[in-house]
Design goal:
With 94 residues, the protein is mainly beta. 0% of the residues lie in helices and 48% in strands. It contains no helices and seven strands. It is globular, with a radius of gyration of 20 Å.
C-alpha cells in the first residue's frame, strides 16, 4: 500500500477506485442467490423453491424471498402463500 495524492493505493490494483476488484472483475458475492433453487426450513417444514431476491438486512444478516414450488397454507391466512422470507441460517441446501 502506498499513498498517492493523499489516497491509499493498493499496488496490486494500481487504481484507488478499483481496490475491491480483481482483474477488473466484480468481487465474489456468494450470498446472492437470485434465480437459484434452494431448500430451506420454514416454520418447522422443509420448503423448496426459487430465490426471487437476496438482501442484506440491517445488522448484516442475509434474507431471501423464496417463490415456493408448492404453495403453503397457514391457518392465519385465508389464501395459500406462494412466497416466504428465508434467513440464511434456515437454508438446508443451496
Amino acid at each position: 500500500m502506498t499513498y498517492s495524492a493523499g489516497i491509499l493505493v493498493d499496488q496490486k490494483y494500481q487504481n484507488p477506485y478499483n481496490m475491491g476488484m480483481v482483474n477488473n472483475k466484480e468481487p465474489d458475492m456468494g450470498w446472492i442467490k437470485d434465480g437459484e433453487r434452494i431448500q430451506a426450513r420454514y416454520l418447522g417444514e422443509i420448503v423448496n423453491g426459487t430465490v426471487e431476491s437476496s438482501r442484506v438486512k440491517y445488522g448484516g444478516g442475509v434474507q431471501y424471498t423464496l417463490i415456493l414450488d408448492q404453495p403453503v397454507q397457514f391457518r392465519w391466512r385465508s389464501e395459500p402463500s406462494t412466497r416466504v422470507l428465508i434467513d440464511h441460517d434456515q437454508l438446508v441446501s443451496a
